[in-house]
Amino acid sequence: MNKFISIAASIALFNFAYADEVLEAVRVESLYDKIEKEGKVKDVVEKTEVISKKQIEKQQAVSLIEAIEKSPGIDVTTNCSMCGIKRVMLNGMKGEHTTILSDGVPFNSTVSSYYGMDAIGTGDIEDIEIARGSGASLTAPEAIGGTINIVSRRAKKNGMEFDVAAGEQGYRLTSFSAEGITEDKKTGAIVTGTYSNYDQYDQDKNGVNEAPKLENKIISIKLTHELTNSDLLDFKISHSDSKVFGGPMVDESYANALFGQTGTADPSFFGGDVNNQYDGDPMGTLESIDTLRDEYTLKWTHIGDWATIQSTLAYAEATQDSMYEGTDYNNEDKTYFADIKVSQALNDEHFLTYGIDMKTEIMKADSTQFVSTPTSNGHDDFNYNAYGIYLQDSWTINNKTELNLALRGAKITTNFKGQFAKKNEIDETMFLPRMHLRYNHDEYTVSRLSAGQGYRSPLTFFESEHGLIGPDGFGVDIDKIEKSNNISYALSYDKNRLSATASGAYTEIKNLAYIDSEGARPVLKNSDGKVAVRNADIVVGYALTPSLSISGGYEHFWYDDAYKELLSIAATEKQARFMVDYERNGWDAMAQATWSGSRNLEPYGYNDRYNDEGLTSPKSTKAPSFTTVDLKISKEISKNFTLYAGVKNLFDYTQTQKESPLFYDADGEYDVGHIWGPLRGRMTYAGIKAKF
């Protein structure tokens, strides 16, 4: 019994993100085991891929998006060339089906998961844990596609770090961290801050950008204090300010004057063709979004004689002040979360995790431009409440086999305040199972089989559309919760030089939310029937020497045609990666190539699109295959300073070289989402990192 109490204590103190998992197996590491090789997964029951702080630095990733976009099973799509909105698809599921966890807390909201993904900095991140599949976390069952858990840094020593870089396209990075810990090791604090910037990018020089200006300011403070030998407190507060400015290529003073203005204006290009110079009112293409977000988390962990108890309270508030081509849209989103979790060893075979949680999200929106009548449903306000109770048994069947069985009960209500239908359009109680089986074939080979159900309440029109454009507003006609079934299998091998993981998954979802644009106003609705996505991938890493390693991977997605029609952007179907990494004598060099396969764009709704307003120059419905290459090299010039330089998109490949992301539809309406490839060209950069 004492052994299992020790396990519970270790979980609570060092693995907040997944406190319901068993302690990782420990074995003596060889020189090659210490190398971070691709294809290596976290040593827990469910398949969990880990991106370390070191890997984040190698990629020169300043945001969560940049840190994860080259990972297996992840497709980061750009849905709008003017505002640059990114969506993160896990296992082929839509962006709103990916749940972002912050130290295990399901903080992501409608606002933060849309424009906030680019605003999550990497300065305070220790690791990023990616678990794909429905029901991947007890406290985040809304994750139909899976979860991305951000494990924040905690103070371990006394010291400071600075990182300053600059490059093309207005790239600027300034980050710092300062951490301290008391002599008795009971109290620690870490403060991190980041400023980053990319300017607008207009490769075809037609006067409107293919990628917007993106400026982020982030600061966070994390405090830890050991109250007693059995009690630990964690408190974290963070603030972010994200500004997006896209559309007309105007100077900054003029851009500041436009920001916050309203007033409709039709876009216009010379000769009516998007490939020609823009000659219309700048307001006709301007999209600006300013998002402020504050997060507060308090955790108390008590290690008792019979169990470990963890209590969590969290609050987040986000505000968005935005304009879409003269149409203003503002909202305020507040999220409250509470959880009490108990981890308890029954005997040598069974380890229980059980608890209750609550999540409330309240969003209020406003606009002066698109509300035409009291019944136009111009506001997408909502109140969302989720109450859950869960139980998981981690059963060690023998020294080769471990089985996790979990059941979650949930009560979900959603009130769309602008629908004028009834108090709660969604009011549902459900019970959802999940199962994770791990089988150790031998010391180096592991099979993992997972199956589970997930759910999610569609919340706003914003989840399936990049903005709110049009004088007649929009509608929300949702009365069903999205539900999914998922099964996945992974086979992993890790021995000395070689690590490899092959996996496959099948996800089926019903009541999928989508935008119906057939009527006078677009309306968010539940789809009829079911849609499915299948995906398979393999990742291999091999250490040629302790200093030199290579890795590669391939993934393939199969989407139902009915599902393709409901996506707002063409998803990746085939992708391959190859990387070389060298570390020796203070040198660190990395080269990574990513290949994306060709696609037929017609099933995604890319047909009947034109370059010109006269509808005489049709867009292509065939996306070619392409390859992008990133390089970075750094040199430690002393124990305190490291110099580095690199290039992203070395061969300057962009979609715009072949066709603009702008288009006119069959009705002659202008839009900005004909996207299938990179929209930013080559960017070189250089910087210096200091540690004291």
In angstroms, what is the radius of gyration? 25 Å
Strand content: over 45%
Poorly predicted tracts of residues: 1-35, 372-377
- Give a short account of the largest sheet: 22 strands, antiparallel, barrel
Distance separating the two termini: 43 Å
- By oligomeric state, this entry counts as single chain
The shape is: globular
Structural class: mainly beta
How many beta-strand segments?
37
Number of helices: 5
The proportion of residues forming helix, as a percent range, comes to: under 10%
* Average pLDDT taken over every residue: 86
Describe what you observe in this structure.
- The protein is mainly β.
- The strands form six sheets. The protein has a 22-stranded antiparallel beta barrel. Strands 1-6-7-4-5 form a five-stranded mixed β-sheet.
Features:
single chain, about 700 residues, mainly beta, 22-stranded antiparallel barrel, five-stranded mixed β-sheet, disordered N terminus
What order do the helices and strands come in, and which of them pair?
Layout (H helix, E strand, L loop, with lengths): L1 H13 L34 E4 H6 L5 H5 L5 E5 L7 E5 L7 E5 L2 E2 L18 E8 L13 E7 L6 E9 L4 E10 L5 E12 L14 E16 L2 E16 L5 H7 L28 E17 L4 E17 L2 E19 L4 E17 L15 E15 L4 E16 L9 E15 L4 E12 L18 E3 L4 E14 L2 E13 L2 E4 L6 E4 L3 E14 L4 E12 L1 H6 L7 E11 L2 E10 L2 E2 L8 E2 L11 E2 L2 E11 L4 E8 L14 E3 L4 E2 L11 E9 L1
What is shown here, in short?
With 692 residues, the chain is mainly beta.
